[in-house]
Write a structure and sequence with these properties.
By secondary structure, the protein is mainly α. It contains 11 helices and no strands. The longest helix has about 30 residues.
């Protein structure tokens, strides 16, 4: 009987495995190869983005990535920004400026497109799957806390692109979106530039390991201060 969760390998698969050893070892290798095949396109996309850092079109690539990432592109702008800052540290804040401006421009484009689609169309579409009422409530909550919702996405690993579209669906004020994006998107990208500028290559390890966690903690601290001020005033 075939055991649940086990991969039964043919003699050819075992013979072609490079690690040798027990069936468990061979199975691990097959799993690793499957994961590599699955993640291969993503890895190639990342490498393609990083490749622009070594060309004379780096600034244009930074602008295009920051703009498109805020609308639909799955690769974070931080990736190319960090590579550019490491390659040309003296231009770190120039790269951060380009990244910030075009990211906000892209996010605003997504927000306006969402606004043009409108909340009614979104909730109407969700009614087909029986979630129209839930969608309307979610968008109402987003609209109520629109500034801080955008701020969270602009600073933390939460996808800014998704919240840009939802901000439009929820019909939040354009000035709120622009203000939150300008403040917190700048904080994120200039923080990357500053860390690389000060610490050089060693900064990459910090950014890879701790940067997202640090931005979440900063965002929580900011929200905590705002809540405290409101409580004290109340």
């Amino acid at each position: 009987m075939r055991k649940k969760g086990k991969i039964h390998l043919s003699d050819d698969q075992k013979a072609n495995a490079t690690t040798g050893g027990t069936d468990e070892t061979v199975e691990e290798e097959i799993h690793a190869h499957a994961a590599a095949r699955l993640l291969g396109p993503v890895r190639r996309l990342y490498e393609w983005v990083l490749g622009w850092a070594e060309t004379r079109h780096a600034a244009k690539a930074m602008a295009a990535l920051a703009f498109s990432e805020a609308i639909f592109f799955p690769v974070p702008a931080d990736l190319l920004l960090g590579a550019l800052c490491l390659g040309r540290p003296r231009s770190s804040f120039r790269w951060a400026t380009i990244c910030t401006l075009f990211s906000i421009l892209g996010g605003t484009t997504a927000m306006l497109l969402g606004l043009a689609i409108g909340q009614a169309r979104v909730t109407g579409t969700m009614e087909f799957v029986g979630l129209g009422e839930e969608a309307a409530k979610a968008l109402a909550v987003f609209g109520e806390y629109g500034f801080w919702a955008v701020a969270v996405a602009a600073l933390t690993p939460v996808p800014y692109m998704v919240f840009s579209w939802v901000a439009g669906f929820a019909e939040i004020a354009v000035w709120q979106f622009l203000l939150a994006s300008a403040i917190f998107r700048s904080m994120r990208f200039f923080a990357v530039a500053a860390i690389v500028y000060v610490f050089g290559p060693a900064a990459k390890r910090f950014i890879d390991r701790y940067f997202n966690l640090a931005t979440v903690l900063v965002m929580l601290l900011v929200i905590g201060v705002v809540v405290l001020v409101k409580v004290l005033r109340g």
